[in-house]
Amino acid sequence: MHATLPLLELTDFPPLSRGSLETLQVNLGYLCNQSCLHCHVNAGPRRREVMDEATVRSVLDVLAAGGIRTLDLTGGAPEMNPHFRMLVIGSRKLGVRVIDRCNLTILEEPGYNGIAAFLAEHGVEVVASLPCYQSDNVDAQRGKGTFDTSIAALRRLNSVGYGMDGSGLILTLVYNPQGPSLPPDQAELEAAYKRELRLRFGIEFSRLFTITNMPIQRFGSTLISKGRFASYMQLLKEAYSEANLDVVMCRSLVSVDWQGYLYDCDFNQMLGLPIVDAGKPRLHLKDLLSRNLAGHPIVVMDHCYGCTAGQGSSCGGALD
Fold it and tell me: Is 202 exposed, middle or buried (0-12, 13-18, 19+ CB in 10 A)?
């Protein structure tokens, strides 16, 4: 796989500093039942990096200390971590909002088909990847048969209340482009998704997020192989919007890797760029118990243009 970091280091992206910490985004490991082309984590079935129980308990210690309102669980497939349920239950007991970033197909894997009911029981928000409402496009990006399995998983989530009026169970779908282009207007695409999924499959969901593909890891390497890395970066830079700087996710979020080390965002984690802290090469979860990161500089490089291009992009969808 081609390295993208050397192509991102020389940057003119403006400096950023951190605000108050509201969200802890925890990567429970790179193990996944899929290997998607757009995956910036480079996750897959052969990955063995999985957060252990001691580090999961450190997450709970940080949440118990107060101040952090949201726990955002990601992977890989976070549900494949053996301590997933313990972390969800412990976090909800603390009154913390929990988000599960689900690839949908894991809900149909042997041994995991009880996950949907478990998530509903504990009021976990589900953010589910579905890059298109047409089967050919999804299968091309995520593997043959993925679309049909995803539809089955969405029906399973609907059956326990997700996305249904009055249930209080939020089901968010996530769109990302098929290749090196910016996402379309989020509101317009959400309307199309709702119309098509309801008419063709009887599926309901709460909202849609559009997320820009980042020029790193597997997707970035593919761009390099096809000779399209430079043109994609130019597209991101030409679509830069200064207004997005105030609301990029790194201002209020800390990303945690499977070993418990801290990063400004999930993308910096994948590039191996830890949070900068004077006198310490990298910070760990336990440091959050004694350190206030407000005002700390955020590590920026050229990939940051992916979050500020057009409507903007974050783990919470478009920014404007």
Answer: exposed
